[in-house]
Amino acid sequence: MNKTKNVLIVDDEPKILEVLSALFKSKGFYVFQAETGKQALAIMSEQNIALVVLDLMLPDIMGEEVCSAIRRTSRVPIIMLTAKSEEEDLIEGFARGADDYVTKPFSLKELFARAEALLRRSGGDLIPLSVRNSFKDGDLVVDFERNVFQKAGSPVSLTPNEARILSALIKYPGKVFTREELIAIALSDGFDGFDRAVDSHIKNLRQKIEDNPKAPVYVLTVHGTGYKFGVK
After folding, report:
1. 53-69 per-position pLDDT tens digit
2. DSSP letter for each residue of the chain
3. What percent of the chain has pLDDT over 70?
4. Which of 144, 143, 160 is nearest to 204 (CA)?
5. Of the candidate ranges 73-87, 113-127, 131-145, 178-192, the one whose mean pLDDT is the lowest
6. 8 A C-beta contact, residue 51 and residue 8
7. Range(s) within the chain of domains with CATH label 1.10.10.10
8. CATH number of the domain at 134-229, please?
9. Over the chain, what is the mean pLDDT?
10. Which of 26, 75, 104, 155 has its CA 20 to 30 A from that of 3?
11. Contacts of 93 (CB under 8 A, 6+ apart)
12. Residue 222 CB: number of other CB atoms within 10 A?
């Protein structure tokens, strides 16, 4: 078994487990299934999992709690499945350590594209920050665990898309993300023609966290390729 291709799917709906298992198996993954949070955590403690697809609503433990428990011991990419799309719910998930969200009902093509993007970013050539969910430099404070975003001592309000992009950039400083990767990470409306939308999110993010948005030091443009996170 190729341990780098183990995926854990956690959902209490048998039909979703069946469909997602068939999808990932068709792509060459070995699939582990769990219908409860306790089952998921047991599998995580015993297996080398490369990706977790985790439903928010479980019969025993809420998905956010399972996510937090996984994140205490693992940096495995986590995609949350949710029927919720409210901003506070998404921010809460990112604060718990989720890497991405897919809202039900979802397309299998979109879900797998997001999974592929996360797996590319978490490859062995990438070195995450020692504390992935936080960053502090000068007057910029970002802490996804506590849901704190501050600039010069004042709170910064991030949209879910901005939080997704910033989380990805901070997790892998120096890693250059293409616009296509950021589309898969941050946007759920589709995959065609969204380059301008990504650029708009980047522009808004710079307005909120940079001293001089026209001369950024954190969210940097790599001309002809995409964006990366710069650490002074």
Report:
1. 999 889 999 888 999 88
2. --GGGEEEEE-S-HHHHHHHHHHHHHTT-EEEEESSHHHHHHHHHHS--SEEEEES--SSS-HHHHHHHHHTT----EEEEES---HHHHHHHHHTT--EEEESS--HHHHHHHHHHHHHHTSTT----SSTTEEEETTEEEETTTTEEEETTEE----HHHHHHHHHHHHSTTPPEEHHHHHHHH--S-SSS-HHHHHHHHHHHHHHH-SSTTS-SSEEEETTTEEEE---
3. 80
4. 160
5. 178-192
6. yes
7. 134-229
8. 1.10.10.10
9. 81
10. 104
11. 56, 63, 64, 67, 80, 82, 101
12. 11
Residue with tokens 């001309």: 223
